[in-house]
Amino acid sequence: MATDYYELLRVDRGASPDELKRAYRKLAREYHPDANPNDEEAEAKFKEISEAYAVLSDEEARTRYDQFGHEGLRSGGMGGDPFNFDLNDIFENFFGGNPFGGARNRGRAGPPPGEDQEIVLDLEFDEAVFGVDKKVEMQTALACDSCEGSGAAEGTSARSCNSCGGVGQVRQVRQSLLGQMVTTAPCGTCGGLGEEIPSPCSVCRGEGRRRDTVSYEVRVPAGIDSGSTLRLTGRGAAGPRGGPSGDLYVHLRVGESDTFVRDGDTLHARLHITMLQAALGARIDFETLDGVVELAIPPGTQPGEIFRLRDHGVPRLEGRGRGRGDLLASVEVEIPSQLSAEDEQQLRQVAKQRGEEVADPGDRTVLGKIRSAFR
Fold first, then answer.
1. What CATH number is associated with residue 24?
2. DSSP code of 80?
3. Structural domain range at position 72
4. Cβ atoms of 183 and 274 closer than 8 Å
5. Which residue, 40, 66, 209, 260, is most buried by CB atoms nearer than 10 A?
6. pLDDT, tens digit, for every residue of 162-215?
7. 364 vs 109, 119, 284, 361, CA distance in Å?
8. pLDDT tens digits, residue range 77-99?
9. 5 and 64 in contact (C-beta within 8 Å)?
10. How many CB atoms lie within 10 A of CB 345?
11. What is the number of structural domains in the chain?
12. Strand partners, 297
């Protein structure tokens, strides 16, 4: 059983044309494909309410529908095919184009889309690695609440521009040496919109939108990097007189870490150990982005050796595989710059047992030779 058109638009059967238009605008925004990407149910609902408005906004078709229901609209019933309406006209008037495709055969103008906007979002290093929801604030154009974006005062509506006949453009013919030349230009009366508003809304002065501060929550995926840009469809400026909103482009800027250096999905860090830990081996705690892990340092570890901690790097973004990269910890051996007398004596004893030549206490000769080599 076909759904009642009045129920689809959520209006009474005696609704005026303005009430029908306001109801359609509200529902169309709610179920518009741009606001519901990849939602087949919303797309189907959008088509249904557009069909309902196409019938009820046509005086003759509405009369047939009120008298005979859907049967009165079928081809051959009361003459003509009521479903042979042009959805492009509706989409053009409210959204600046048909999102389901289809070329227009008529040059009727429609409200232009709003401007795209850009904003820079700063992230901490670990926020970019693990992902985060961040709130951003911005100044933008919003649909006027008073006139619901139409630009017309309550109880009134826009009308087709008398100067351009609703096309939004005017043709100019001028004579040249090559013959007649025809050029088109935006209509100066309606500004290219194809409509005039006899009684503009007192709040937005016929613009159909107002400027205000809004806040959006931006979902930053894990593994994002500095210089990336997120696109938020329909979060830009609202279009004038019910035109579709532009998009918001969020440019990400990631701060540096005091501990880690990022190279794609791989993290690099320095692993500081003492001379004795490198020589004798040890178990030490190492701080990662996931917390502290224990590393086993084998005896005889050399400076510059790399310890690979698998799956402790950056999560891979969608399309680059699953899982995470690795964390590479490079060994840096810390040599004590000052020794106590007891420590120095013990180290000299070890050097003597290993047959290694070291400087005598207070002997500056070796140090002087080393310094002179760099002069």
1. 1.10.287.110
2. S
3. 5-95
4. no
5. 209
6. 888 878 888 777 766 556 677 778 888 887 778 888 999 999 998 899 999 999
7. 91, 62, 36, 9
8. 443 344 444 444 444 444 444 44
9. no
10. 11
11. 4
12. 282
Nearest Cα residue to 328 out of 276, 272, 271, 284: 271
pTM of the model: 0.60
Give CB contacts under 8 A, 24+ apart, made by 168-172: 168/107, 168/108, 168/109, 168/110, 168/192, 168/193, 168/194, 169/107, 169/109
Number of H helices, E strands in the chain: 9, 15
In this predicted structure, the answer to whether residue 265 has a pLDDT above a threshold of 80 is: yes
Pair 119, 250 in one domain: yes
> At 1, which amino acid appears?
M
Q: Which two tokens stand for residue 95?
A: 């959204």
Q: What whole-number distance in Å separates Cα of residue 337 and Cα of residue 57?
A: 89
Residue 178 confidence (pLDDT): 56
Q: What is the CATH number of the domain that holds 228?
A: 2.60.260.20
The residue-averaged pLDDT of 316-345 equals: 87
Looking at residue 121, its amino acid is: L
Give the contacts of 172 (CB within 8 A, at least 6 positions apart).
182, 183, 184, 185
Stretch 88-114: mean pLDDT, rounded? Answer: 50
Short-list 240, 233, 164, 180, CA closest to 204: 240
Residue 337 phi, psi dihedral angles, 5° rounding: -90, -20
